[in-house]
UniProtKB/TrEMBL annotation, chain A:
Protein name: Simple sugar transport system permease protein
Originating organism: Ancylobacter tetraedralis
Keywords (A to Z) from UniProt: Cell inner membrane, Cell membrane, Membrane, Sugar transport, Transmembrane, Transmembrane helix, Transport
Main location: membrane
Record's bilayer topology term: Multi-pass membrane protein
Lineage, uppermost ranks: Bacteria, Pseudomonadati, Pseudomonadota, Alphaproteobacteria, Hyphomicrobiales
Pfam families listed in its UniProt record: BPD_transp_2
Coiled-coil regions listed: none
UniProtKB/TrEMBL annotation, chain B:
Annotated transmembrane regions: 30-51, 63-96, 108-127, 148-169, 189-209, 238-257, 294-314, 320-339
Pfam families referenced in this protein's UniProt entry, alphabetically: BPD_transp_2
Source organism of this protein record: Ancylobacter tetraedralis
Keyword Transcription: no
Localization in the cell: Cell membrane
Protein name (database record): Simple sugar transport system permease protein
Record GO terms (molecular function): transmembrane transporter activity
GO cellular component: plasma membrane
Main location: membrane
Keywords: Cell inner membrane, Cell membrane, Membrane, Sugar transport, Transmembrane, Transmembrane helix, Transport
Membrane topology designation: Multi-pass membrane protein
InterPro entries membership: ABC_transp_permease
Length: 331, 343
C-alpha cells in the first residue's frame, strides 16, 4: 500500500505540467489571477461529488455512488422550492440563504442515508441501488420543479459563497478545501476511517472482526449525500438557477477524478488529498482545452480516453515503474 | 424460453409458503409478468382506450429498440458485468453508417446495411471486451469511459448535423408494413416489418444461452468467474464475445432506430441506458450475475415501455415517469434480494 506516495507525486507533476503547457499555449494569460480564480470557482461542485464517489468506492464490495449529481440537483431544487414558498430571495436579511443552505444539506443527508440504508439493510448491490436512486432523485426533482428551472436569485450570503473572494481566493474554493480536510481527518483519525478502509480491503474479515458494517456503510453514503448537498448549494450559488438536469456529464467526471486519484475501484484505498489534486488537474486541463478553442465534444472524447488511460496506469503499475519504491508492495 | 440457473437450481422447496418463494426464486419473471398484467388491467379499467389496437401497436413498436438493447445488457449482466456504453455504440454506428451509405453508396441493399451495422457495433464491442478483460476493473467504470470515448469521437470528428433524408432503401425499410389495417376512426395502423427483428434476436439469444457451450460459459462466469476459469473456460474469449454480442445488438438497434424515425440524429439514444438496465433488472436478472432469462428480459422491457406510455393515459403527469421507474427498480431489487435470502 506504500506505492501510493507515487500517485501524489505523479498528480503534482501533472498539475505543474498542465499549468506550464497552458501558460505556453496562451502566452501567459492562463496564469492570470482572473483565470486562476475562475478555475478555482468552478472546481468545488465537481470536487465534492468526486470525494463522495471516492468514499463509496473505498467501502469495497462493488461500492459506488452514481446518484451524486442527481442528489445535488434534488437538494438545490427542493431547497429552492421550499425556501421560496416562505421567504423571498430579494429579502435583505440572510434568512432565505440560510434556509436554502440548511434545506439543501438536509435533503442531501436524507438522500445519502436512504442509499446507505438500502445498501446495508436490504443488501441491494450499490450499483443497482444508486442507479435506482439516481432515477428516483432526478424524478423527484422534476416533480418538485415541474420540469422547469427554479430561480434562486442572488441573495447576499449565497452570492458571497458563489462568487465572493477572500484574500483573492474564491470563497467556494476555501469551503471545498476546508470540507476536504475535514473528510481527510475523518478518514485518518477516527475509527470510522479505519473500518471503512479495512472493510473495503476484505469485507469477510471485517465481518468476522465485528466491525459495525451497517453503521459504516450508512455513514459512508450519508457523508457522500451530504457532499452532494454541498455541491447543490455551490451550483445554486454560482448559477442563480437550479434545474434537475444540470451537469449531466458530472457523473463520469466524478468517477474519472476518483480513478485518476488512484482510488481503487475494488475498495480499500483512497486519499482525499489525491482526489483534490486530481480534481484540480482535471479543471486545469478542461480550461486548457477551452483556451485551445476545442469543442465540448473533444473534451468528452478526452475525458473518456483519460479515464481509460488512468485505469491502465493503475492496472500496470506505471507509477511504481516511473517512481520506484523501496518497500515491497502488497498489490 | 426458460431460465438457466447454475448455482441455485438445487434449492429444494420445503413447506407451503416456501414453495411459492422457491418458485419465484427460480422464475423471478413471474413477478414481472404479474406486475405487467396488473398494470395493464388497472389501466384498461381506468381508460379503455388502452386496449385499442393502435396503442398496443405503439407499445410493440416502442419496444423494438429497447428490447434489442436489453438483450445485449442481459447477457452481460448474466456474466456478472454491466455495460453502459451500448447507447453510444448504437449512436456511433447508426450515424456513421447512414453517412457512409448516403455519401458513397445510396443504393446499398438494406440487408447489407443491417449486416454492416451489426459488424460495426460488434467491432466497438470488441474494444469494450478487450479493455474490460485487460484492465481488470469493474466493467461499469470501463464502459463509462468508452461511452464518452465513442460519443466524443462521433460528435467531435464525424459530425453533429442531423441527417433528415435517409438513403431510399433505409427509408423504405422503416416504412415496410408487416400488418396493416384500418382503425375504427379511419386511421391506418401499421405494425412495421422491422418489429420482427426483436423476436428473431430474442430467439437467437435464447438459443445461444441455452443450447451452446458459450451460453453455459456465460452463466458459469456470472456465477463465479474464478471457478469458471479453473473449469477451463477462457475468460478472455468470453469477455470479448459478450461485449461484441451486445455491441452487435446495439448497432442493429441503432440502425433500426434511424430507419424507424426516418432521420439520423447523432444526439439520440445516449441517456436512455438507465431505462434499459432497469428493464433487464425488472425482468429478474441479478446485477451480480449468473441468473435471468430472455423471457424475463422481454417482460421487463414491456413493463418499462408500458409504464412510460400509460402514465399519461391514467392521468398521472409524465413528470412522474422517472419516480415510478426508479421506485420499481428499488422495489424489484429489494424484493429479489429478500426472496433469495429466505432459502
Amino acid at each position: 500500500m506504500r506505492n501510493t506516495g507515487g500517485q501524489l507525486v505523479l498528480l503534482i507533476v501533472i498539475n505543474v505540467a498542465v499549468l506550464g503547457l497552458g501558460a505556453a499555449i496562451s502566452g501567459g494569460s492562463f496564469l492570470a489571477p482572473f483565470n486562476l480564480q475562475s478555475m478555482a470557482g468552478q472546481l468545488p461542485e465537481i470536487g465534492f461529488l468526486a470525494i463522495g464517489v471516492m468514499l463509496a468506492m473505498c467501502a469495497g464490495n462493488g461500492g459506488i455512488d452514481l446518484s451524486g449529481i442527481a442528489l445535488a440537483n434534488l437538494s438545490g431544487v427542493v431547497a429552492a422550492v421550499v425556501a421560496g414558498k416562505f421567504l423571498s430571495s430579494a429579502d435583505p436579511s440572510s434568512a432565505y440563504s440560510l434556509a436554502f443552505i440548511i434545506g439543501a444539506l438536509l435533503v442531501g443527508l436524507i438522500g445519502g442515508t436512504v442509499n446507505g440504508l438500502l445498501i446495508s439493510r436490504l443488501n441491494i448491490t450499490p450499483i443497482l441501488c444508486t442507479l435506482g436512486t439516481q432515477m428516483l432523485f432526478t424524478g423527484l426533482a422534476v416533480v418538485a420543479s415541474d420540469g422547469r428551472a427554479v430561480a434562486v436569485g442572488s441573495p447576499d450570503l449565497l452570492a458571497q459563497i458563489g462568487n465572493g473572494l477572500f484574500l483573492g481566493v474564491p470563497i467556494s474554493f476555501l469551503i471545498f478545501i476546508g470540507v476536504a480536510a475535514l473528510v481527510a481527518a475523518l478518514l485518518k483519525f477516527t475509527p470510522f476511517g479505519l473500518w471503512l478502509m479495512l472493510m473495503g480491503t476484505n469485507p469477510k474479515a471485517a465481518t468476522y472482526a465485528g466491525f459495525p458494517r451497517t453503521g459504516v456503510l450508512i455513514t459512508t453514503y450519508a457523508t457522500s449525500g451530504l457532499l452532494s448537498g454541498l455541491a447543490g448549494i455551490i451550483i445554486a450559488a454560482r448559477n442563480v438557477n437550479v434545474k434537475w438536469d444540470y451537469g449531466t456529464s458530472y457523473l463520469l467526471i466524478a468517477i474519472l477524478i476518483a480513478v485518476m486519484a488512484g482510488v481503487r475501484p475494488e475498495g480499500g484505498y483512497g486519499r482525499v488529498v489525491c482526489v483534490v489534486l486530481a480534481a484540480i488537474a482535471l479543471q486545469l486541463m478542461s480550461s486548457m482545452l477551452n483556451f485551445g478553442g476545442l469543442s465540448n465534444f473533444v473534451r468528452d472524447f478526452a475525458w473518456g480516453a483519460l479515464l481509460l488511460t488512468f485505469l491502465a496506469v493503475g492496472r500496470y503499475n506505471v507509477v511504481g515503474f516511473l517512481i520506484p519504491n523501496k518497500s515491497t508492495k502488497l498489490v | 424460453m426458460s431460465a438457466t440457473h447454475l448455482h441455485d437450481s438445487a434449492a429444494a422447496p420445503a413447506g407451503r409458503p416456501n414453495a411459492f418463494m422457491a418458485l419465484v426464486r427460480r422464475r423471478p419473471e413471474i413477478i414481472t409478468f404479474a406486475l405487467l398484467l396488473a398494470i395493464c388491467v388497472a389501466v384498461s379499467l381506468i381508460n379503455p382506450a388502452f386496449l385499442q389496437p393502435s396503442s398496443l401497436v405503439d407499445i410493440g413498436r416502442a419496444s423494438v429498440v429497447m428490447g434489442l438493447f436489453a438483450l445485449g445488457v442481459f447477457i452481460i449482466l448474466a456474466a456478472g458485468g454491466i455495460d453502459v456504453s451500448f447507447t453510444a455504440i448504437a449512436a456511433f454506428t447508426m450515424y456513421s453508417l447512414t453517412l457512409l451509405v448516403k455519401n458513397h453508396w445510396p443504393d446499398a441493399p438494406i440487408a447489407l446495411v443491417l449486416v454492416a451495422a451489426v459488424a460495426g457495433g460488434a467491432l466497438l464491442g470488441v474494444v469494450n471486451g478487450l479493455l474490460v478483460h485487460h484492465l481488470k476493473v469493474p466493467s461499469l467504470i470501463v464502459t463509462i469511459g468508452t461511452q464518452y470515448l465513442f460519443r466524443g469521437i462521433l460528435l467531435a470528428f464525424i459530425g453533429t448535423v442531423w441527417i433528415m433524408s435517409l438513403p431510399p432503401n433505409m427509408g423504405a425499410f422503416g416504412r415496410l408494413p408487416l400488418v396493416q389495417f384500418d382503425a375504427a376512426d379511419g386511421r391506418t395502423i401499421t405494425l412495421p416489418f422491422y418489429f420482427l427483428v426483436l423476436p428473431a434476436a430474442a430467439l437467437g439469444t435464447w438459443w445461444m444461452l441455452n443450447r451452446t457451450l458459450m451460453g453455459r460459459a456465460i452463466f458459469a462466469v456470472g456465477g463465479n468467474a474464478n471457478v469458471a476459469e479453473r473449469l477451463g473456460y477462457s475468460l478472455r474469449t468470453i469477455h470479448i464475445f459478450l461485449f461484441a454480442y451486445a455491441g452487435g445488438l446495439a448497432g442493429l438497434a441503432g440502425i433500426i432506430h434511424t430507419c424507424a424515425n426516418r432521420q439520423s440524429n447523432p444526439f439520440d439514444l445516449v441517456g436512455s441506458e438507465i431505462n434499459v438496465i432497469a428493464a433487464v433488472v425488472l425482468g429478474g436478472a441479478r446485477i451480480t450475475g449468473g441468473t435471468g432469462s430472455v423471457l424475463g428480459t422481454l417482460l421487463g422491457v414491456l413493463l418499462v415501455v408500458v409504464v412510460n406510455s400509460v402514465l399519461v393515459m391514467v392521468g398521472i403527469p409524465s413528470t412522474w415517469q422517472r419516480v415510478v421507474v426508479g421506485s420499481f427498480i428499488l422495489l424489484a431489487a429489494a424484493f429479489f434480494v429478500t426472496a433469495q435470502k429466505k432459502s
